[in-house]
Amino acid sequence: MSHNESINMENFEKSYGEPAKASVVQIQNNEEQLNRTLKTRHLSMIAIGGTIGTGLFIASGQSIANGGPGGALLSYGLIGIMVFFLMTSLGEMAAYIPVSGSFNTYGSRFVDPAFGFALGWNYWLSWSITVATELAAGEGIMQMWVSTDKCPGIVWSFLLLILIVGFNALSVKGYGEAEFWFALIKVVTVIIFVIVGIFVSAGVLGGKVYGVSNFTIGEAPFVNGFLGVLGVFLAAGFSFQGTEMVGVAAGESANPEKDVPKAVKQVFWRILLFYISAIFVISMLIPYTDPALTGGDVTTSPFTLGFERSGFAASKHVMNAIILITILSAGNSGMYGASRTLWMLANEGKAPKIFRKVNSNGIPIYALAFTALIACLSFLTSLFGNKVVYIWLLNASSITGFIAWLGIAVSHYRFRKAYIAQGRDLNELPYRAKWFPFGPIFALILCVIVMIGQGYTGFSSHPIDWSGIVAAYLGIFIFIILYVVYKVVKKTKIVPLLECNFSRTNT
Q: pLDDT tens across 73-97, in order?
C-alpha cells in the first residue's frame, strides 16, 4: 500500500466512524480467502447467462403483444444500451479493484459507507428471494411432465434446491462450470431459433411465407402509443438483470485485469444478437394480436410457437426442458451472488462475522447456508394463505436490481472523478469505460425513470390502487431505511474525492 493510500485509510477511519477494513478487505487467514479459479470462458458465459432467461423465452411474447414489434424492439434496444454502459462502468472498477460482491464495496469506497451497506443488503435480499421464485417456477415446469397426483410439487423444488446448493458448495469452479454449460445450452437454443425462424419466415420451412407483414398489421409496429412502449421498457429492464454478476465474480477470477474486460466487451453484441434478433424473428412469425403471446407459460412461449410453425412437433417438450435449465441457471447464479455479497458484507463489518468463514474449497459455507435458508423460507410463503407475503417479497426484490444498477452508475461516476482528482493516470486503468461521463449519467437517468415508472399501473387504475403502488416501491423504501439507519448509527459521511480509497488489495 502506498503512502498516499495509507493516509487515505487513516482519514477514512477518522472521518467516517468505522474501521478502515470496511473499505479495504485484507484477508490474512486462509480460512477467509476465496479461490481465484474462474476463467475467461466462465465470466463470459456468466454474463450471457445473466441476460438469457424466462424474460426472453416467455415474457418476450407479452412484450410484443403490449407494445407491438416496434415498441418491443425500441424498448429492448434502449435497455440494452443502458446495460452496455453499466457493464463498461462496472468493468472499469472491477478490473482495477476486483472484489467479490463488488457493488457494496464500491459504494462504500466512492460514495458513502451507508450507501454501500444499503446496496449490499438489498442485493443479497434480491437474489435470496429470486432463488425462491426459481424454485416455485421449477415446480410448475415439472408438473407439466409429472402430475401432483404422482409426485407433490414441493419435492421438485427441494430437489432443485439441492442441485443449486450442491453446485455452489463444491467449489467456485463448480459454479463456473455449471453456469458455463447452462448458458451454452441457452445460447445454442437462441441461435437455432433465429436461424429456423428466418427459414420459416422465408417459406423454406413450414410451407408459408411470413416476411415482415406482421410489422404493418393493425396498429403495428407501435401499439398502445407511449404507454405501450413504457410498459415494455419496464419489463425489458427485468429481463437484463443478472449481467452485473460479472462484477460479483471478478473477485474469484484467475486474471481479472484481462478476464473482466473481455467479458464486458462482448455484452453489447450478445444483447444485440440474443434479444434484438430473437424479438425481430418472433415478430415476423407471430402477429402481436395472437392471444397465445399473452399466455405466460411454456406452452405459449414464442419460442415454442415459432418452432411449431417449422413443423417441429416435439418443440413443447424441448422448450420445457430448456426453460427448466434456465430456471436452474438463474437459481445457481442467484445463490452465488447472494452468498458472495453476504460474505463481503461480513468482511466489511456490515454483517455477522460468522459469514466470513470459508471451507477448504474457498466457499463461504455459512453465507451459502444462510442464503439457502432464507430462500426456503421465502419459498414456503408461496404455499400458504393467498400468497400475500410471497407477492410482497417479490415486489420488494424486483426493483432491487435497478437499485444495484443505479449504485453501479453512481459509484463509477465518483470512482472516475476521484481517480482524476487524486492525480492518477487513466492509462494505468486495465480497462477504461468509453464516453465518460455520458455512460453512467445516461444509465442513471434511465434507471430512475424505470424505478419511478414501477407504480404507473397503480396510478392509472380507477380507483387508484394504493396497495399496488406501495408494493411496487417497497424495495426503494427498504433501501432508504437501510441507508438512513446505518448512516445515523455509524455517523457516516459522503467520502470526499481526495479521500476515496483506491487500494487494490484483493479478497
A: 998 888 888 888 998 998 899 889 8
